[in-house]
Predict the structure.
Amino acid sequence: MSTERIIPHTSLQQHKPKTELMKLTRRQLLSRTLAVSSSLMLGGSFITASDAAWAMELKVLKPETMTTLIQMARDIYPHDNFGDDLYAAAVKGHDDKAAEDTEFRTLIDDGVASLDMAAVDAGHANYLATGWESERVALLRSIESGDFFKTIRGGLVVGLYNQATVWEKLGYEGSSFEKGGYLYRGFDDIKWL
Amino acid sequence: MSAPFDINDDSVVVIIGTGAGGGTLANELAQKGISVVALEAGGRHLPQDYLNDEWPSFGQLAWTDMRTTSGSWRVATDFPNLPAWIVKAVGGSTVHWAGASLRFQEHEFKVKSEYGEIEGANLLDWPITLADLEPYYDKAEDKLGVTRTNGIEGLPENNNFKVMKAGADKLGYKDCHTGRMAINSKPWKGRASCQQLGFCFQGCKMGAKWSSAYTEIPFGEATGNLEVREHAHVLKIEHDDSGMITGVLYADKDGNQHLQKCRIACVAGNSIESPRILLNSASSLFPDGLANSSGQVGKNYMRHMTGSVYASFENPVHMYRGTTMAGIITDESINDPARGFVGGYEMETLSIGPAFMAAFLNPGAWGREFSAAMDTYSHMAGMWLVGEDMPQETNAITLSEEKDHLGMPVANVHFDDHPNDIAMRNHAYQQGKAVYDAVGATQTHPTPPYPSTHNMGTNRMSENAGDGVVNKWGQSHDIPNLFVSDGSQFTTGAAENPTLTIVTLAIRQADYIAEQLTTKAL
């Protein structure tokens, strides 16, 4: 992992749905989509949760590509109590970077294409259509030494685990100075020893 | 004359770096009325600027300028351009250190005599003893306000410590307490007491932890004898035909170069940058770099045997609440070769947030095993294992092919573990696991060394000029008005966290420099 890769990209920290999409009603939003999985819907240049609880507008990556990255993210660091929104926020930065860097965009597009090819070789329609986690993980293992996988996994270390919502789910309370530290907030409250 | 000083004022002492060594030396000299120009590569960040947020704080404080790595250590694979996790700012790594302030043990100053010949190890006795340093350790502990010294009580026990202590008691360890810490358990010398923020590594926003950034540096500046130049990147140290140092060449924020003349130069840029500067200063008179007639500049790089053990429990721990290094077991710090290795190690609680845990628990790992461990974060306790590593001539700072933004070769850090380091780490992992198993750990995670925080030994102190770079005062064997004032002068690394000893040596060196100036020896 390079130094550059472990310094967080601010755009990866918290994803907020884009305003254009937010102007649409839930029905309007969903009317423009196609279901690709139990929880994600694709539009022309956006992805939304099947209940339209969140949506992500894309700059250059295809919605299918981003959906694949979101599924990859969950398969790489599976936390079953994390919603797709957290994984989407964790990989959103790749779209931003691809918009500025064609070489990077090629890395992502080609990477997803070869992952899908590996899925076809294994008898599936593509990665997203590979039904079981264990089967998808086997596909990821087959590409884990390549730059595409390393880029996605390396980005997730910060992109996923540097989110305040993730911290809450993991039981971490974070910044404390503004609350007077932990001196009166349980620094020594362990009872079970 | 009082600060600021003229660039052509050749009566000043120039100190490169403002951390534990450089910052302390700068203040000590300034207090004695000696004119000092301190060149600091970073900017100035004070408690109000520090961030209770791991990655943004890393971005604010860490040295992320290019470095390269080689060797079989795992850091070279996982963090190839981040061999060390140290600070680039006024105060250096005293901004992010944990505060553990332990004296070296008597035998650790004479390990060659104690341990005998160890194959592959370039062991050497220090030219000084514990007795030589004791009066200065006293001064350093008073300066830092170290708990359990000078009548200062220990810090209270946090959750992470309580887990360690319960395990230590069950294993029969005798010496386990909340440490000797340069963190105030009560207000000390104008600094507040610890509120258990849990962000010692991000700079203490209470100022409860000693850092030269907000003690030594402003105290020195208040005398009018110290000028700190920020964003001053040193390129090389210059000398005259007789081989005496005449000035230090540095680039300012805009890349403009300046030559500050001086009477004495002191290098305190840490064990990676200090030898790099000496090597980059090679000249026709000193073709192998300054102070390098022994060939030992950059050699014998030590980083301590380290590793961590994190353990998950059925019930919550919340290890992140409170001081990062909240306590210690010292029982394993003895030299007992019956364990299968020479030297010893300390076991010190450590906690990192989920953002850093994800990066450091097992770099490169993925899948359910990894995320299952992360899921137990709030139920985790953790400790850091830190012990004496063997100096090896092949573990070295050399000049890389890569150049920095000023066109100077960057440092390459080469490191291979010595078999003694590996044997010690395996023992330490087992003992760390045993501590947590004794109190019901459901899973323990042996965690590999982080990028180096303890960097030592690359300009080592020696009795004989042929064996090392500096004498017992940190003065170059070759060039009398050139000093090394940081941890790179350590002959060997001992088991203890190095900062207290760096501060101690700097206080002692200041006395020596003042005497040399008074007697006109320099």
About this structure: Chain A touches chain B at residues 1-4, 6-8, 76-79, 137, 144, 153, 157-158, 160-162, 166-167, 170-178, 180-183, 185-190, 192-193 (CB under 8 Å). Strands of chain A lie at 34-35, 40-42, 46-49, 55-57.
